[in-house]
Amino acid sequence: MDLGLTGKRALVLASSRGLGLGIAKALASEGAHVLLVGRSGDRLAENCKAINAEGKGKADWVWGDLAEENFVEATKAAVKEKLGGIDILVNNTGGPTPGTAEEMTADKLDIFFQSMVLRVITLTNAFLPQMKEQGWGRILTCASSGVYEPIANLALSNTLRSALVGWNKTIATEVAGFGITCNMLLPGRIHTDRIDELDGANAKRTGKSVEEIRSASLKTIPAGRLGRVEEFAAAGAFLCSVPASYVTGTMLRVDGGASRSI
């Protein structure tokens, strides 16, 4: 299938590693010009070098921290300079610290709300006028399977990412008539550094070994294994594609069947 992404301009947030980097690679492999954003200049530079060596799409990078107040304006300027405009926006953020609902203080909520919700919404709003004018756009927001089934000891993530669900559905209906789609991609247990960190935190909290935590989690996944970043990224690339033009306002789970809800 031709995804129709040759020459499309894509901004991928939090793409120095993990799921964001996977989506950036997938889009570039389809011929897109991707702009990677993250907090590690060294990793971003190496990632772009590897993507450009493939000779299909093209990659540039810019340093950016979603926690910074000037993130939106700085990123807008970088998109204009590096891409000349935008067709695809992939909203991706790092995860908050683990913890229970009782441990969610006002300060923690405010800090992570700024980087995980507010910046996502304001950045999207900043690029919508251009997408409307050109009559084409793709907005993909990565969240977590925790918005379907809250994950133990991830109360902050469950709470804040769920806020994006209502926002995505609302804005999808508002911009569909302009040829813009808005979808959410929900990872289950995809093997990334983040999963290793969470398993380590759960091991410390429960007094079990990381191996015991990992083994128990695999038993809850019908596929019997962790997902691969490439599998998650392929689903993201499709939602950003031309053939997916009639798919909007949806949430796609990539979780190996782990979610028991319909």
UniProtKB/TrEMBL annotation:
Pfam families of this UniProt entry?
A: adh_short_C2
Highest taxon of the source?
Answer: Bacteria
- Which PANTHER family does this one have? 3-OXOACYL-(ACYL-CARRIER-PROTEIN) REDUCTASE, NADPH-DEPENDENT REDUCTASE BACG
Provide the family line.
Belongs to the short-chain dehydrogenases/reductases (SDR) family.
Name assigned to this protein: Short-chain dehydrogenase/reductase SDR
Q: Which species does this protein come from?
A: Neorhizobium galegae bv. orientalis str. HAMBI 540
